[in-house]
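Design request, tokens follow.
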């Protein structure tokens, strides 16, 4: 992991060598970014106390705000997609979770693996969401149960590939025929893996 004085973010930020961080992102305090994770334009992550940990292949999309809570850090699992304009505040997100555009997840919330939090949902403090849930509303409630592992992992895979392309200065990877073919193969692999 990149850390210490060589990091433009300060000595407490740890970034895996193959992670992608857009130049406009701002990371402060005890923040850890795992392998193939990506931080997109205008993201702000702050961890003045406790820590923020972002798992492998997880993408934090444009204009997301991640902060610690009052006594709770923010931990995000592997293969997650935290989409545009989301606020995460002192919560725990399991593996293979997609959080929809504009959602807010507050202090002490725990989101089970393979879940989807719909756009604009608001999860009040201490909300516990079981695995394989679809959550909607304000306050957010489970409206359906479904294992979303394959679809959510696929979205994370697409962003991991896109981040690697952006790091090379290539901004149209998703439009290429090669990417379409690779996507079909990866989708089949994930369906076989997760059923």
């Amino acid at each position: 992991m990149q850390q210490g004085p060589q990091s433009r973010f300060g000595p407490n930020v740890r970034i895996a060598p193959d992670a992608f961080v857009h130049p406009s992102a701002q990371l402060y305090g005890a923040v850890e970014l795992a392998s193939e994770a990506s931080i997109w334009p205008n993201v702000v992550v702050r961890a003045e106390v406790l820590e923020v940990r972002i798992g492998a292949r997880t993408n934090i999309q444009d204009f997301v705000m991640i902060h610690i809570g009052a006594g709770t850090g923010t931990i995000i699992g592997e293969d997650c997609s935290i989409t545009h304009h989301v606020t995460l505040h002192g919560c725990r997100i399991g593996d293979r979770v997609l959080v929809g555009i504009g959602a807010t997840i507050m202090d002490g919330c725990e989101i089970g693996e393979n879940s989807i939090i719909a756009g604009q949902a608001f999860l009040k403090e201490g909300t516990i969401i079981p695995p394989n849930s679809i959550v909607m509303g304000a306050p957010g409630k489970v409206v359906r149960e479904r294992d979303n592992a394959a679809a959510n992992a696929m979205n994370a895979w697409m962003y991991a590939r896109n981040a690697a392309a952006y790091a090379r200065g290539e901004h149209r990877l998703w439009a290429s025929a090669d990417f379409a073919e690779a996507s079909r193969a990866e989708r089949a692999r994930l369906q076989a893996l997760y059923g």
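Comment from the thread starter after seeing the answer: thanks! The chain has two helices and 19 strands.
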